[in-house]
Amino acid sequence: MSVIKLNVIDLEKTDYMGGKSSLCPGCGHDQVSKVIIQAAWENGIPPESIAKMSGIGCSSKTPAYFLGKSHGFNTVHGRMPSVSTGANLVNKDLSFIAVSGDGDTASIGIGQFIHAIRRNLNMVYIIENNGVYGLTKGQYSATVERGSKKKKGVPNEQPPIDLCAMAINLGCSFVARSFSGSKKQLTSLIRAAMSHKGMAIIDVISPCVTFSNNDESYKSYNYVKGNDEILHNVDYIPHYTPLAEVDIPEGKYDDIKMFDGSTLRLETVGSNHDPSDAVAALSAIHHATANKKHVTGLLFFNPGIETTDEALGLTGTPLVDLPEEQLRPSAKSLEMINQGFRSN
Question: Domains in the chain, start-ordered, CATH in brackets?
């Protein structure tokens, strides 16, 4: 007789599943969806307390394939950050998971992406980055490296936008890069991002099997596997698991405490990267780019920055749960406010 595994809130993994994928067989995005399901289940987040947000593109279709019991909103192209801002401020107690693509984020939505980082929205922002516009037949996106070549056509001649470098420069408090083929690393990073208070950005290299899964493409599966510069091995330890029960990794390691008491354990691989050093993070990105490699792992982490709701001084009770008499000022209080403006 098989035993059904339950998580810490006594739910099966099936409670976190979504619909059947309609993406191309072998698409890296499907692996990211599976990791999101695994991460939310292992972290014990009630599905009904999650809001999944997306824009337009192959990547933005994926919320239909995970967390079927969660809230969801599929916005227009590039507008997901602003819709998420409004939803976040009205109901800050929800856990926000946003999925976007390199087209949705780095082109039409780049302005909204920038301001979401500036505001430090409390959300996980996952970019499924394949370097092409898959829904419109594979044109190069703004993130593809110069010299990278699709299955058909000439190599890309435009310089890329590195979304991780941009996020670090803008002061994002959690920035990571991973690969859809690195399940263990990606799962640990997403679990940690879900425990982070503030904006957590994970740029996931997710190969497009239809247009760019050839070795001349810098975002193909074979290229990334052969040119992945890993900063460290990552292990996520939830707050309800004592550290003594976790195997101590070989070599040097650092424990990073998350907001909820969980731990992200980083074991050094090759170099002593300090994720609290923004200059070191940018240097690692530029070094990898110069050598036509992809650097993966937790690039930068800076806890303690005020989130948008904290900076605005919102009430402890989400606005959506406040009664009308508390949301609507009385005629007397409104007159006092107006009088204050008149006297100035």
Answer: 13-310 (3.40.50.970), 318-343 (no CATH)
